[in-house]
């Protein structure tokens, strides 16, 4: 059986793929913002001397780091509504699933960065009369972001790639629209090649930025 490569019909439906790309970017960027913000909070909870804070945070991290992202997405989409009678917009559910995964990985990146901050700086903040919250906001957070930035960028790229998994629950992202277009045009090779190139075109510059940030931080 021969198969003639022809991108005509795939490129003709590029608008369909762009619609899916917008959803993918919406899911990814929203999840990244939430993951970067709450990841720091969870890291502080893990490092808290209070077991009421550290144990739940540690359990949360281990659950989301040690289970496949696909299982997490399916569980949140199908089990949460059944167990808690909560029905949310599919995009919101997608953001929730991706954000929780990213928070867990970012929390570990922040934790390692916080541990790398010299203790003398924390002692200096106490000497200056800063309370715990002020120390975390003005001393710990800026340095933690700086030290963890390459890992945070890498995690952001990873969640952008993993966002393709939401296609399994019928969210009309880039992967889902690519699947629909391939079915309509009977051109799976061409369609998924274009889809892969779109992911590549966005992820490659981000990975380059991550490597440059890492090099600059090593020099500094």
UniProtKB/TrEMBL annotation:
Alphabetical list of CDD domains matching this protein: TM_PBP2
Organism in which the protein naturally occurs: Marinomonas communis
Keyword vocabulary terms for this entry: Amino-acid transport, Cell membrane, Membrane, Transmembrane, Transmembrane helix, Transport
Xref: Gene3D superfamilies: MetI-like
Major localization listed first in the record, in broad terms: membrane
Record-level GO BP terms: amino acid transport
Name recorded for this polypeptide: Amino acid ABC transporter membrane protein 1 (PAAT family)
Transmembrane regions: 20-47, 84-105, 147-171, 191-209
């Amino acid at each position: 059986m021969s198969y003639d490569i022809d991108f005509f019909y795939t490129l003709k439906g590029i608008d369909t793929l762009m619609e899916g790309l917008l959803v993918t970017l919406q899911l990814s960027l929203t999840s990244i913002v939430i993951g970067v913000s709450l990841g720091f909070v969870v890291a502080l909870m893990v490092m808290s001397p209070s077991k009421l804070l550290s144990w739940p945070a540690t359990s949360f991290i281990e659950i989301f780091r040690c289970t496949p992202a696909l299982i997490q997405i399916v569980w949140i989409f199908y089990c949460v509504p059944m167990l808690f009678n909560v029905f949310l917009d599919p995009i919101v559910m997608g953001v929730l699933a991706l954000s929780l995964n990213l928070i867990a990985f970012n929390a570990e990146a922040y934790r390692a960065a916080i541990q790398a901050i010299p203790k003398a700086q924390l002692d200096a903040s106490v000497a200056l009369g800063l309370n715990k919250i002020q120390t975390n906001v003005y001393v710990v957070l800026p340095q933690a972001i700086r030290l963890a930035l390459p890992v945070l960028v890498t995690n952001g790229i990873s969640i952008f790639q993993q966002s393709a998994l939401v296609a399994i629950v019928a969210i009309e992202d880039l992967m889902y629209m690519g699947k629909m277009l391939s079915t309509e045009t009977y051109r799976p090779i061409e369609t998924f090649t274009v889809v892969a190139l779109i992911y590549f075109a966005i992820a490659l510059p981000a990975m380059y930025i991550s490597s440059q940030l890492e090099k600059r931080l090593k020099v500094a």
